Each structure stands twice: as C-alpha cells, then as structure tokens.
Amino acid sequence: MTYLWSVFTKPWIGLPGDELGRLISGLGFAGAEVPVRETAYVTPATAEAELPKFTAQLRAEGIEPISVASELSEHVFAACAESGVPMIRIMAGLGPDGYAASVRRNRELLETAAVLTERYDVQVGVQPHHGRYVSSTLGVLQLLDGLPHRFKLVWDAAHDALAGDHPAVTLELGADRLGIVNLKNVHYVRSERGWTTNFVEAEDGLSDWPAVFATLRQLTYTGPICLTGQYSDPAVPVETRLERDLRFAVTSAAQHPSRE
C-alpha cells in the first residue's frame, strides 16, 4: 500500500473545486486538505451548502479530501459528514492567561466537541505549531490524553524540528493517535527582529524527511502524507517548490517503503 500524497490547498484559497482539483492533480497530488475559513472559497457559514459540492468537484478530478482546516462548530462537522471528509484539523492556541490555563481551555473545547465527533463520525486532528500554540508533539499528546480515539495527532515535520524533537521519538510516541503526517521544512534566519523562522524546501531545513519515512516504515503507517506548501520566500512559485518537494518526498519514501 502506498501513501496518499496530499497537499494543503491554502495557497489557492479562492479557487473553486474544479479548478483547484485540476491544478493540484497536475502537480502530482491525489489528496487535499481544504481550508474552511472566513477567507476561503468555502467558509464555516457556507460549509453545509458548499462543501459537498466542492469536494465532489475535487473527486471528479481524482483528488480525495483528507481533512478540512477549520473550526469545531456543528456546521463544519455536519458539512464534513455530508461530504465524506474524515477530519477537521485545528491547532491549540495559547492566550494571554498563560500556558496552563490555555491548555485547560483547549481541553474543555475538545471535550465539548467529543459529542459531535460521535454524532457525525468525524475526527478532530490537533497539530502542534511553533509560537502562540501548543508547540510540541508531546504537548499535543498530553492535551489529547484520555479523549476518544477520534481525536488524532496531526504530526508536523517543521514544527517538530522547531520544538527540538526528532521524528524517531515523537512519531513513535504518537503512533496510536497518528492521523496525518504534515511535511514542510524550516530553519532560523537572523533579521532585524532577531532570529525568525524561514520556511524552505525539503532539503534546506532542520527536519530530516528521510528519517521521517524511516520511522513511518517501522510504524507501518499508511495514512495521508500532506505537503503544506508553506514557503517564506515568494520569489519562486509555490507550485514549482511543491513539485520539487513532492519528488523528494516520494524518493525518500521509496528508500523506506511502507509495508503492506
């Protein structure tokens, strides 16, 4: 069994499903994570009406929706259920009241959403994110501890590296919750604002993608792999960079193939 090579479609946030499907299929992808946000083609308010049509258009172009990046409202859960989208991806934000209080607030949000995950049979995926979020894989796993199995870890190569972790450790610890593996890469650059994050192509950052695939093989993971298309330098078109990164990811996976 091979991975479902997917892409986060945020770079083309305003495109309708048919145009988007043709574009990302042409880049070599077979799956997509779709933003359902206020600035996107499908918004939380329009999701119940628009997401089924949007995902049908993607499927007509050979693209399977793996998730939406959105909020945990019942409108979005219902839209995902109607559209056959298995997961809503979120991040756990931190507020001015500090880390511990923010984690408690996020936990309460997830516990409240548990009834919706059961009612609609839609998963919730939580991704670590550098900065004002729960930033480590281990922090997300602690946040999810004890919740039903529909609550998943969306592991992220770049943010794992920014947290100072290694995929051989964090992927193994998160294996039972692993829903999606995000691939992007990053390093730090010195600027007038001090050291800042710079999102780069696969071979230029802190994350070791071949090590990711070596670990995934050991874990017999065969779920979606999602390239997020995040690059700090706009000088090269995102499509060009994604094609190069997809080739590198496929080559790395071939060196460490998934088990049947």
Automatic annotation (TrEMBL):
Coiled coil: none annotated. It comes from the Bacteria. GO terms for molecular function: isomerase activity. The keyword Isomerase applies. This is Sugar phosphate isomerase/epimerase. Residues 27-248 form the Xylose isomerase-like TIM barrel domain. The keyword Isomerase applies. PANTHER family: HYDROXYPYRUVATE ISOMERASE, INOSOSE DEHYDRATASE. Keywords: Isomerase.
